[in-house]
Request: fold
Amino acid sequence: MTPANPDAWTQLPEGSPALACVDIGGTKVAVSMADHRGISGKVSEPTAKEGTRDALAVQIIRLIGESCLAAGIPVSSVGAVGVSSCGPFVLNEGLVELAAPNICGGLAGKARGLPNDWMSALLEAPLRAAFKNVRVENDGVGALEAERRWGALQGVSNCAYVTWSTGIGMGVCVDGHILRGKNGNAGHLGHTFVVEDNEALCGCGLRGDVEALVAGNAIPRRFGAQGYADASALFAAARAGDAQAIDIIDTLCKVMGRALFNVTALFDLQRISLGGSVFWHNQDYLLPRLQAFMQGKLPALTSGLEIVPAGLGERVGDLAALALVMR
Amino acid sequence: MTPANPDAWTQLPEGSPALACVDIGGTKVAVSMADHRGISGKVSEPTAKEGTRDALAVQIIRLIGESCLAAGIPVSSVGAVGVSSCGPFVLNEGLVELAAPNICGGLAGKARGLPNDWMSALLEAPLRAAFKNVRVENDGVGALEAERRWGALQGVSNCAYVTWSTGIGMGVCVDGHILRGKNGNAGHLGHTFVVEDNEALCGCGLRGDVEALVAGNAIPRRFGAQGYADASALFAAARAGDAQAIDIIDTLCKVMGRALFNVTALFDLQRISLGGSVFWHNQDYLLPRLQAFMQGKLPALTSGLEIVPAGLGERVGDLAALALVMR
Reply:
């Protein structure tokens, strides 16, 4: 599905102001610049989680400067900043702050061992003080816009992009309209309940939500003691015929299958595109199992639904922020 | 919340063509007429479930004639027909047919004892052959439009109306846009999975979905043997202090609470309005329990969310079809 020359998409018309593309994850922050040459100057660091509540915003402003330097672009010529970020968001006087469980230590108490007690991290206010045009969206929305523009969701009016990665995220489009909701948090599939489980603790403080059960960061917590240090160890064992690993993955697929079924029933979708590191590196194993879960369940809702790998593959994250600000 | 003179809403401007309002439920079909005098001529019958696949549409066309007669309106002066119907819908050449579990016996096999083997019931095609302007929507969408126009959801851009009745239904509005999806089925909350249960059979053929667990028609199936013949018997016992009935209702509230939480996380809502016979007659008992379930869960998603009784109360269903066709 990926075209031969993906970089051509990212080239702005000659003379356009440069765009800064910021991707905020629970683990790392990446910044790159787009201009008529395409994307360049990518820099990244572990996400700032210590100090004052503006530490992350300060880091981003510094990284935009470093990315400009690396790309040979004067920071004064940055025309817009697109920010694709993990959530959830809270709004403070209309400006986005992050209440992200993998960043803010105040949300799940001390249980997750984060080095801060933030209930939210400042984001949009400091960025707007530094740059004129800033657009901040949930990373699910950014990825969805990228998949709709360049990937597997082109021309599909009712669709979702779901990421199965360190966390679980989603962006949804219904009737051609990309959903945001009151704080820009529509699509928080990771924080929904689909089975009974009162043990697995999510970073958000809930127990037994989808993210607590199947996300990449849940695998060592839940199955480390059984010898599976992370997702790749678990899938390697299953591929080698380890019955326990196969059982565990079947359980993960049931949770994710239910989550995708719920989404289908609630949004009445035509196509779901899947990405994220856990899915992407194991799509041959996971895709047929997820498709089989859906098969025959309430055909009025599921027939006509396609579940496909992300057209942009592992580049979805990189292109999400660009999709938010590119004309 | 209900204004003093609800009938004033339903009065069309003098000289407007009359509107036929059709409400299709799994148990009964009701038809009434609206003109400059308001709503009149209401007729209703048990939903047609025997004979050929057009039996329901034939019944509706006949009932529109009878309603016109009762209201003193010539059937030739009907300007539009609004149809608010239980779903799910399937589209056949762009026209709605019903694949509703409480109507079509073919969907859950013989398990539900319906007197037909229909996989879908004809609806929009025969109606359009008889009338010029026909608008068919999911009853969740109809009720939502009524609640947004006259009820508890006026002026709220991110909201849902949820009915807890014989079945479970929903209509959702995000960013001011009422969601439909590829076949007009967005909002099928009843057919989502929120807990583990492999026993309770839904009319749609699924086991353990929300509707199979908590809907009005699930109560006799699940708890009849324990002495609770229906929802009102169950709630009467709980109010009289019956510990078993209280436990059962707590479990129902947990399922419904999870369903409402999921909806909040997926659509990022400001307000959810609740109606339907099970909820409406027991709102003093249910509302505080549902609100308590939400309390403190992932505040970035739930804070600012209000859960309220339907502003239109038991009239939501009656006004849903009118809201679909009234200018």
